[in-house]
Design a protein that fits this description.
Number of helices: 0
Largest sheet: 7 strands, mixed
Shape: globular
Order of helices and strands: EEEEEEEEEEE
Distance between the termini: 40 Å
Helix content: under 10%
Mean pLDDT: 97
Length: about 120
């Protein structure tokens, strides 16, 4: 079955960086889109980035464009999210997700498969 396992979260100060990883299994990596979705405390989920694991085409939400970079490693069935210039508004649980579709959806409700999430806290 589909399994997504995130890692790399933690506590950082404003302006610092973190790199999240998502290891995928149970489906043919390279056929589908994978996305990162975050949920800040007390708020709903927000789609922030997606990548076509075949073509490498990427998409970003305006809130992270220019600061976050999504990438893939097909040899390791892994997607990464490099997060730079972090600020307190980036504090959230970060999930990787897929709906086994070749199209990027910006609606978190479209995603059927989710990892367990990794906490990112940005605070001085």
């Amino acid at each position: 079955q589909v399994q997504l396992v995130e890692s790399g979260g933690g506590l950082v100060q404003p302006g610092e960086s973190l790199r999240l990883s998502c290891a995928a299994s149970g489906f043919t990596f390279g056929w589908y889109v994978m996305s990162w979705v975050r949920q800040p405390p007390g708020k709903g989920p927000e789609w922030i980035s997606g990548i076509d694991t075949g073509s490498g085409v990427t998409r970003y939400a305006d809130s992270v464009k220019g600061r976050f970079t999504i990438s893939k490693d097909n040899a390791k069935n892994t997607v990464h999210l490099q997060m730079n210039s972090l600020n307190p508004e980036d504090t959230a649980v970060y999930y990787c997700a897929t709906d086994l579709s070749p199209e990027v959806s910006r609606r978190p409700s479209d995603y059927k498969y989710w990892g367990q999430g990794t906490q990112v806290t940005v605070s001085s």
